[in-house]
Every structure is written in structure tokens, then in C-alpha cells.
Amino acid sequence: MGCLYVIEGATLGGQMITRHVRTNIDITPTTGGSFFEGYAADTGKMWQAMRQLLVSGAIDPQTESAMVVSAITTFASLRGWCALANTCAKNLTENHREADQRA
Fold first, then answer.
1. 3-state DSSP call for residue 101?
2. One short Pfam family name for this protein (predicted)?
3. Would you kindly state where each structural domain of the chain is located, as residue ranges?
């Protein structure tokens, strides 16, 4: 349930990203930004349903603790994946730069 909290919570962030890219670079859900839109107009309703599920699932302190540990572990995994992707992107950029200099 903690993992689900993290993933579903990302849909709220997606709403903020959707507004930002629409305002600043004119990308909408129909012009390439649909990934960030999540549940669109239903995002708030879906988040409330998720909150209800979390509350009903936290039946005792041990279960609640396991949910928290799962969420923390999921956040740590996401951070690691992003760091790895950033390292890969830097390496690709550096490799392309070196190839361009040799050409």
C-alpha cells in the first residue's frame, strides 16, 4: 500500500506539471503531455479514494508501519532510478561531444 501511495501521489504532481507545460511551452495532453495528466478531471476524486483505501488498510500499528516502510522504500528506489538515468544521460552527452570533436 505504501508503494501505491507513492505512485498514486505522483498523479497529483502530474497535474502540476500539466499546468506548467501548458502555460510555459504550450504542450497539452493532446499535443504530447498526456503522460502527466493522470486521471485528468478525476485525479482529485481518485486521490480521495486512495486515501480512503490507505485509512481502511491501516488496521493496526504494525500494518501502518509496514505501509510507511513500503512508501519510504519506493521513494528511495525512485531516487536511485532517477540518479542512474541522470548518470546515463551525462555519459551519453559526453560520448556524443567526444565523437563530434573527433569528426
1. helix
2. Heme_oxygenase
3. 2-73
Cell numbers of 37, please? 495528466
Separation between Cα atoms, residue 103 and residue 61, nearest integer Å: 63
Give the type of residue at 27.
Answer: I
Residues, the chain, total?
Answer: 103
| Spatial separation of the C-alpha atoms in residues 75 and 80, rounded to whole Å | 9
Q: Which of 21, 42, 24, 41 is nearest to 32 (CA)?
A: 21
* 8 Å CB contact between 14 and 36: yes
Q: Which three cell numbers stand for residue 80?
A: 536511485
Write out the chain's pLDDT in tens, 103 residues: 999 999 999 999 999 999 999 999 999 999 999 999 989 999 999 999 999 999 999 899 999 999 999 999 999 999 999 999 889 888 888 878 878 788 7
